[in-house]
């Protein structure tokens, strides 16, 4: 059944089973990516034909000839069809993605991929800062394709790696590989976390090649351009750049539209003073905006004032810390891992926690970190070193006093 199409499939049935061929007239047929989809609203007919196909061809037909319900019966089996995909959240769609100049190209390319998976823009690599909509676009692609019967898997790079390690432990590497070889669409988020994981990179490279050669769609997302990824093999970087690379970023008009839309969703009155304050005192991170709005919903407008003070304090701490250590403030929120920048960043984490009432999550967002565990690690490291290093203790005491007087 390799490379099956409708014409050869019907000719084959005519030779071996005309009774089964006669039933084909009752189906609507579609041909996609070397597979045939048979659609009917009759559940009994569907089950009958599936049984006949299995009897004639065995399990081999499953990957090439798929029988689907549509209409009312399809609605009843929606939950069952969704189990063929993994990791998707129905909350995300193209219809509720707010499009602006900073993300328009990424949106349009993602939409095209969802309409023609595996045919154009493969792989698609989306990059940009935290909370700008990368995950939303990946999920929107996945949901649009899953609705049409494609088998989709959404994973973060960390989850992919953990699944692979577990498969090795229990001796199920073959099953792990087959999971990805039998899907139509792979959505891999936070690709930067493949960094340094050599065995994971090898497995992913092989899966990537298999899917690509079989015209199966791969969509990747990262917080940085492929060229800026560290400790990832050159051959993987080459694959990432082999398709289309698009950036998502935030512009003022898009941020304004997001704020207004989110206010309406939370049924908060759209007042000019609230909108202006949100524009001024929130970052370009959509999750940061959503968190602030939920605070307003629960605690009233006073929460906005408190949040504004907190955000302002965090920015001052970043600035003063950077000046003291002779680096640029942008380096503190960037990806540099140099000893000097890393030490300054950890001290800034510590000072933000010590001198403000900001949460660990808020501090992580202020430093463009997707995971607050990074902040916890940095703070603990400084606390330990401060007890042992008298010079470091003096520096931090000085910064606490100097910055504290200016907040």
Radius of gyration, in angstroms, nearest whole number? 26 Å
Order of helices and strands: HHEEHEHHHEHEHHEHEHEHHHHHHHHH
Question: How far apart are the termini?
Answer: 71 Å
The CATH homologous superfamily of the largest domain is named P-loop containing nucleotide triphosphate hydrolases
Mean of all residue-level pLDDT scores: 84
State the CATH architecture of the largest domain: 3-Layer(aba) Sandwich
- Which consecutive residue ranges, at least 5 long each, have pLDDT under 50? 72-83
Strand order of the largest sheet: 5-6-7-4-8
Commentary on this structure:
By secondary structure, this protein is of the alpha/beta class. It has four domains: 6-78, 2-Layer Sandwich (Alpha-Beta Plaits); 104-247, Rossmann fold (3-Layer(aba) Sandwich); 250-298, Helicase, Ruva Protein, domain 3; 301-407, Chromosomal Replication Initiator Protein Dnaa, Chain: A (Orthogonal Bundle). It has 20 helices and eight strands. The strands form two sheets. It has a five-stranded parallel β-sheet with strand order 5-6-7-4-8, with helices on both faces. A three-stranded mixed β-sheet has the order 1-2-3. Helix 10 links the parallel strand 6 (185-189) and strand 7 (217-222). Helix 12 packs parallel to helix 14 and helix 17 (339-355) packs across helix 20. It is elongated and about 90 Å long. It starts with 5 loop residues before the first helix and ends with a helix.
């Amino acid at each position: 059944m390799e490379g099956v199409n409708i014409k050869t499939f019907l000719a084959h049935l005519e030779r071996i089973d005309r009774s089964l061929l006669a039933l084909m007239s009752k189906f609507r047929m579609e041909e996609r990516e070397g597979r045939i989809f048979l659609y009917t609203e009759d559940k009994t007919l569907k089950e009958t034909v599936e049984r006949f196909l299995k009897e004639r061809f065995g399990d081999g037909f499953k990957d090439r000839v798929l029988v689907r319900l549509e209409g009312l019966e399809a609605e009843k089996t929606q939950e069952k069809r969704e189990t063929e995909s993994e990791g998707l959240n129905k909350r995300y769609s193209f219809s509720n993605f707010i499009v602006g100049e900073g993300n328009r190209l990424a949106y349009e390319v993602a939409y095209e991929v969802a309409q023609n998976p595996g045919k154009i823009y493969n792989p698609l690599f989306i990059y940009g800062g935290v909370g700008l909509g990368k995950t939303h676009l990946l999920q929107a692609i996945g949901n649009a394709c899953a609705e049409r019967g494609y088998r989709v898997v959404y994973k973060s790079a960390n989850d992919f790696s953990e699944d692979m390690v577990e498969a090795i432990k229990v001796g199920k590497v073959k099953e792990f590989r087959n999971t990805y070889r039998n899907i139509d669409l792979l959505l891999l988020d936070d690709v930067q976390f493949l960094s340094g994981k050599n065995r994971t990179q090898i497995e992913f490279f092989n899966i990537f090649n298999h899917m690509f050669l079989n015209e199966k769609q791969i969509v990747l997302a990262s917080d940085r351009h492929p060229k800026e990824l560290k400790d990832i093999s050159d051959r993987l970087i080459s694959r990432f750049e082999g398709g289309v690379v698009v950036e998502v970023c935030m512009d003022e008009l898009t941020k304004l539209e997001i704020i207004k839309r989110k206010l309406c969703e939370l049924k908060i009155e759209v007042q000019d003073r609230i909108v202006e304050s949100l524009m001024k005192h929130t970052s370009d991170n959509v999750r940061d905006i959503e968190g602030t709005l939920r605070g307003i919903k629960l605690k009233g407008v006073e929460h906005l004032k408190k949040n504004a003070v907190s955000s302002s304090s965090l920015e001052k701490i970043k600035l003063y810390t950077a000046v003291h250590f002779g680096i640029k403030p942008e380096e503190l929120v960037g990806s540099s891992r140099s000893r000097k920048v890393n030490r300054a960043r950890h001290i800034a984490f510590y000072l933000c926690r010590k001198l403000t009432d900001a949460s660990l999550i808020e501090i992580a967002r202020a430093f463009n970190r997707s995971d607050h565990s990074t902040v916890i690690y940095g703070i603990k490291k400084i606390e330990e070193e401060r007890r042992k290093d008298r010079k470091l203790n003096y520096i931090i005491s000085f910064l606490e006093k100097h910055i504290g007087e200016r907040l």
